[in-house]
Design brief:
heterodimer; A: mainly alpha; B: mainly alpha; 2 domains; 14 helices; 2 strands
């Protein structure tokens, strides 16, 4: 493999890692900051990806035996031409909106109840979304999938250079989302989320509407996941319901957040690169190590081992408030004659 | 259920509070809810195919065996065990290993025992697989969950760990037996024909009868043995159980043992009913399992039994109107409905 081949591979790797980093950020909002146990990331992943793909793909082509009805944006039908790139961003926004809406419904039902119910409900949503796209051919071509998802900016860059353009797009969007999440969790709103995570009853007792804050956090995180799904759709440019199996669309992302350190946004991004690096790297190993089943086993073992041995992950949460001495202790020290 | 105050002679009977908790004592709201459900079922009866109800009851018995273990673990250890489906798959594959790899070497082979498609080897493998998975579940608890409990980890952390266990078990099963479809040695058999176009596969009858026996066994164990009472007491109030001298460690072992054994048997029966084994079969079964547990109220084994039958029958009946591949989604819809209307299950309090 010559040097340009290596660079191409690394660019492709970086794009996937950054897309996964977006999901890890969304999961960090849910789990890392609020303690919401979402194991149905695949559902939001699929919804986001399909929403963006259907909004931007050309209309169904009967010659190709495509029989879905939603495909094609208004520009394709000659109604509203905003240019290709505008539709790309509209697709991102629509993906976020759809995921936010689904999260709103599921959250309203389950977040008033015990914590565990949310996780079971998200699992159900993920499976149901998959069944839906698998069985309802009119929605997105069923198991044959969508395979004419346009590139960002269309044919402005040569097809072989598309990844070089897309890595910049993914980086910019990741940076924007990172800044947004970072800002959100450092705000008073984010402090309430962490308070809920640590002690729900005390937070409620100090006058915060725990349910509303949880719901906002759940919707916010789900919207980020929707954007991640849309980014994925325009990168691989082929979607089928089988793309969204729980292993690659949920568990790997959990492993990323766990490894990087939940409660730390930088950790989430780092974890995405590390775990995706290990995942992609083991491909080249001989024998059993590149066996998908072995990697599945390893992902599970990593999650359990981190829970047992290093719950904070690589970076862990920066606990500024806890680390600094409480003000009352400082006062006591200064007045202490000894 | 308070063990401290109950005198020895009372130990032989379930306490009133326990009966009330499992719904054998009727409150007006509960009676009206059951009446409404009964009327709904009666109203639907002319429109449904009885054969589907029979299939649903068979599926429901498999769900019940899994759900009873799941609800016991959930109630006693406060752990919603995401690996429970994969314990089922593990049980099915251990039985497959015994039937396919071990027993032929000692000359025990065969399929088509009497009216059933499977042979004598499956009957031998059934208790062995149950024992293996039960011991495995206990070992995993000692290795993982006990340490997390000792650290007073939150339920979400415990569930996260169980998710890791679930993934690991599936990876291991795939690694050893490959992701391809397998099946126990089988011979095709005639189904029993009953009036009104009801057809019962003999295997289904076997599954249902075995499920009834096992559920009766669990009922006897929970109601009449000292360990069963200790388990119920721990489920109600773990701290009180500990201070009143119950050996909670043994309770934990028994809970995992029963849960694991029932899950393994459920897995084997599922493989018999579906006539195939797949590593993902257990994970796909999680939603019906949790739906049954939530329907019956978490920690309530009898509720889980009723919930499982309702979920099983609904899943099969739904195929009369909608695409059969939506069956798990039907279980999910039932679960969401219960969470909206009676979050503590049909036998729980309305508060």
């Amino acid at each position: 493999m010559d040097i340009s081949g290596v660079i191409d591979y690394l660019i492709g790797f970086a794009i996937m890692a950054m897309i996964y980093a977006v999901f890890a950020l969304g999961l960090n909002v849910h789990w890392g900051f609020t303690g919401l146990f979402n194991i149905g990331i695949a559902g939001f992943f699929a919804l986001g990806a399909y929403t963006a793909a259907l909004l931007t793909s050309p209309p169904p082509d009967p010659d190709q035996f495509e029989d879905f009805i939603f495909g094609g944006n208004l520009a394709n039908q000659g109604l509203l031409d905003l240019g290709v790139d505008a539709w790309f961003f509209l697709g991102l926004a629509a993906a976020a909106l759809v995921c936010g809406l689904v999260a709103l419904i599921i959250g309203t039902i389950t977040l008033r109840l015990n914590d565990d119910y949310l996780s079971i409900a998200t699992l159900g949503i993920a499976e149901s979304v998959r069944f839906f796209f698998l069985n309802e051919k009119w929605a997105a071509n069923g198991s044959k999938g969508l395979y004419r998802i346009p590139k960002f900016l269309g044919d402005v860059v040569a097809p072989e250079n598309y990844d070089y353009l897309y890595v910049v797009v993914a980086l910019v969007i990741l940076l924007i989302l990172f800044a947004a999440v970072q800002r959100a969790v450092r705000s008073p709103w984010g402090r309430v989320l962490r308070a809920i995570r640590e002690d729900e009853v005390t937070t409620a007792a100090s006058g915060k509407n725990v349910f509303h804050f949880k719901l906002q956090s759940f919707v916010f995180g789900a919207m980020i996941m929707g954007i991640g799904g849309a980014l994925f759709a325009h990168h691989v440019r082929f979607l089928s319901p089988l793309t969204f199996d729980p292993l690659l669309a949920t568990f790997v992302i959990w492993a990323m957040l766990m490894v990087g350190g939940s409660g730390n946004n930088l950790g989430a991004v780092l974890g995405a690169f590390v775990v995706w690096g290990v995942w992609a790297g083991t491909q080249f190993l001989p024998g059993v190590f590149s066996d998908p089943s072995f990697r599945l086993l390893m992902i599970g073992v990593i999650i359990v081992a981190i829970m047992l041995l290093r719950p904070g992950g690589l970076l862990g949460e920066w606990r500024r408030i806890v680390a600094s001495r409480p003000a009352s202790a400082a006062v006591r020290d200064s007045t202490d004659p000894g | 259920m308070n063990l401290v105050s109950s005198r020895p002679r009372n130990l032989a009977r379930p306490s009133r509070r326990y009966l009330r908790r499992i719904g054998l004592r009727m409150s007006p709201s509960r009676i009206s809810a059951l009446l409404a459900a009964g009327l709904l079922i009666l109203g639907f009866l002319p429109f449904v195919k009885l054969g589907l109800v029979v299939n649903g009851l068979i599926l429901g018995s498999v769900i019940a065996l899994g759900a009873i273990g799941l609800t016991l673990v959930y109630g006693i250890l406060k752990l919603g065990n995401f690996a429970h489906g994969d314990y089922m798959a593990l049980g099915a594959y251990v039985a497959f290993f015994i039937v396919d790899g071990v027993l032929p070497r000692v000359g025990i082979e065969g399929a088509g025992l009497g009216p059933f498609t499977f042979g004598f080897p499956v009957l031998i493998a059934l208790p062995l697989a149950a024992a293996v998975v039960a011991l495995g579940a206990i070992a995993l608890d000692a290795l993982i969950y006990r340490r997390l409990r000792d650290r007073a980890a939150s339920t979400a952390i415990l569930m996260m760990a169980s998710l890791g266990v679930a993934i690991s078990i599936r990876g291991l099963v795939q690694l050893i037996w490959s992701g391809e479809t397998q099946h126990y040695p089988r011979e095709s058999r005639q189904v029993f024909h009953l009036p009104m176009d009801v057809r019962i596969p003999p295997d289904g009858l076997f599954v249902a009868v075995l499920a009834v026996i096992l559920v009766a066994g669990v009922y006897g164990l929970l109601t009449y043995t000292k360990m069963g009472k200790a388990m119920r007491a721990t489920s109600d109030n773990p701290t009180l159980a500990l201070v009143s001298g119950i050996n909670t460690r043994q309770v934990v072992w028994w809970t995992w043992g029963i849960g694991g054994a029932l899950a393994a048997i459920a897995g084997v029966l599922l493989a018999v009913v579906q006539a195939q084994l797949l590593p993902i079969m257990g994970w796909k079964f999680l939603i019906p399992l949790f739906a049954a547990v939530i329907l019956g109220g978490i920690g309530n084994p009898y509720g889980a039994l009723i919930g499982a039958l309702i979920v099983g029958v609904s899943m099969e009946l739904s195929t009369q109107w909608i695409n059969p591949s939506y069956k798990p989604a039907v279980a999910f819809a039932i679960m969401i409905g219960v969470l909206l209307a009676r979050p503590r299950g049909i036998f729980g309090d309305t508060q």
